[in-house]
Structures are given as C-alpha cells and as structure tokens.
C-alpha cells in the first residue's frame, strides 16, 4: 500500500507570479517553493505544498512521479536544522550527499538541463520546514558564481517576503500556522494565550505563576523563529487571522 502523501501543487495568484518574475530578473531560470510539515503522518489533511515556475515544471513533475522526495538531500539537511543557503553542487563536492541522493541531482542535470541550484531555508524547526529553490540552465560555472556573489542577498529577501505573504494569505494561513499551533506544548500555549490578552510579557506571572518572565520570553522567541523569524506584531496578526482563541480552546 502506498502511504505517500499527496502533494498540493498550488499557485497563490499574483504573489507567486511576482516571485517568479523577481527571480528571473535576478538572473535565475526557475524557482520552487516547498513546505513540508513534520506532522504529515498525523492527519491526511496535513500535506506538503509544492509550487513551481513554468521552466521548473518538467523536472518537478518528474520529481513527484519518481518520489524523489525520499532521496532529496536538501530536505534531509533542512530537517536536520541546516541554516545556511544550500548550494547543491557544493554539498555534493563536499561529500555531504549519499549516492542515491546524488542520482536525483544528476538526473536533473543530464535529462532536464539543470546545471546549478540553490535552496534557501526559510522555516526550520520541530514543526515544519519551508524554503525556495532556484536553478540555472547556463552551463557556465563562472556565471553561476557571479549570480551568487551579486544576487544572493536579494534572493534571500525575496524568499522571506514571499513566505510571509503566503502565510498571511487566505489559502496559506491554515496550511502553515495551524500546523504549528497543533504542535504547541502547554507552556507555549500559555504564552500565546497571554499574548492574546494584549498584556506585557512581564505580567505573565500574574496569570501563570508557573512560568517566569525569562522563560516566557525564550518561548516566544522560539515560536517566532519557527514561523520564519517574524516579529511579535506579525505573530499577533497571524493569530488573529486564524482565530487562535478558538483553535487553541482558550
């Protein structure tokens, strides 16, 4: 029996089209956005999301058909908490890729013309991983190295902006934030509950004496990091959009 989750292949309208345009303007040839919840096994309603531009489409469809996700070293590194941008061939040449994983990248190069790729982790931690990957078809290594040198910072900004836009969109909110909320510990729920009271964190001991202010601040930082290093105001916005009081049964 095949228990492999079905991948949501969806496009969130103008936001993703804008990301594709920006990536191409920077000089790259294609882009994908991927979101993998770590709670896939808990419910059939929780599924990975994979979006891709037209020029990336042939390989992505092949990737899905071949179930390459189980042999994708980028996913493996991301789930281990890899924080840096992942240059595919740098990782391969440094010996960080298994032989069966290497076959995926070689297939992309030999049969789909993908010469180089970079993955930018955006979301990482105990709840989910997310990131964008960009590719080039140009066989010139110097061209690719120049792109990395000159455009990587802009690419990282594009990735972060798109991820937050997706999280706050009507279609994306439950795929992302709800997955995180479902995995919160009791202490984390108490901190979220306190946030929703619009009270300063230093007052949390009035409501929850078992949590120190220092510990509450640490918990809050961890939650914001898991959602892509967002601000407290952005977190409050997301909680309001998903009606956190109801979903967390406050």
In the CATH hierarchy, what is the architecture of the largest domain at level 2?
Answer: 2-Layer Sandwich
Query: With helices defined by DSSP (H or I, 4 residues minimum), what is the helix count?
Result: 12
Distance between the termini: 40 Å
**Looking at the structure, what is the overall shape?**
elongated
User: What structural category characterises the helix and strand content?
Assistant: alpha+beta
What is the CATH level 1 assignment of the largest domain?
Alpha Beta
Q: Order of helices and strands, N to C?
A: HEEHHEHHEEHHHHHHH
CATH topology of the largest domain: Beta-Lactamase
CATH H-level homologous superfamily name of the largest domain? Transcription factor LuxR-like, autoinducer-binding domain
Mean of residue pLDDT values: 82
The value of Rg in angstroms is: 20 Å
* Biggest beta sheet attributes: 5 strands, antiparallel
Low-confidence parts: 1-12, 41-46
User: How many β-strand runs?
Assistant: 5
Strand content: 5-15%
What is the share of helical residues? 40-55%
Number of domains: 2
The strands making up the biggest β-sheet line up spatially as 2-1-5-4-3
Explain this structure.
With 250 residues, this protein is of the alpha+beta class. The chain folds into two domains: 14-167, 2-Layer Sandwich (Beta-Lactamase), CATH 3.30.450; 184-245. It has twelve helices and five strands. Strands 2-1-5-4-3 form a five-stranded antiparallel beta sheet, sandwiched between helices. Helix 1 (13-26) runs antiparallel to helix 6 (141-167). The longest helix has 27 residues, at 141-167.
């Amino acid at each position: 029996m095949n228990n492999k989750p079905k991948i949501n292949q969806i496009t969130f309208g103008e936001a993703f089209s804008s990301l594709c345009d920006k990536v191409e303007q920077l000089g790259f040839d294609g882009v994908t956005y991927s979101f993998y919840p770590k709670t896939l096994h808990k419910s059939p309603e929780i599924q990975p999301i994979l979006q891709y531009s037209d020029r990336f489409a042939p390989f992505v469809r092949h990737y899905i058909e071949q179930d390459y996700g189980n042999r994708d070293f980028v996913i493996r590194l991301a789930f281990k908490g890899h924080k840096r941008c992942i240059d595919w061939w740098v990782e391969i040449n440094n010996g960080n890729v298994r032989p069966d994983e290497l076959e995926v990248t070689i297939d992309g190069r030999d049969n789909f013309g993908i010469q180089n790729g970079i993955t930018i982790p955006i979301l990482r931690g105990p709840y989910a991983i997310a990131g964008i990957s960009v590719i080039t078809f140009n066989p010139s290594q110097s061209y690719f190295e120049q792109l990395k040198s000159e455009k990587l910072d802009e690419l990282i900004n594009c990735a972060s902006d798109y991820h937050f836009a997706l999280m706050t969109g009507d279609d994306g909110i439950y795929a992302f934030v709800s997955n995180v909320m479902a995995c919160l510990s009791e202490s984390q729920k108490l901190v979220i509950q306190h946030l929703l009271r619009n009270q300063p964190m230093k007052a949390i001991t009035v409501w929850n004496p078992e949590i120190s202010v220092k510990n509450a601040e640490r918990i809050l930082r961890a939650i914001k990091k898991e959602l892509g290093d967002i601000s407290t105001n952005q977190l409050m916005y997301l909680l309001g959009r998903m009606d956190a009081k109801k979903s967390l049964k406050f």
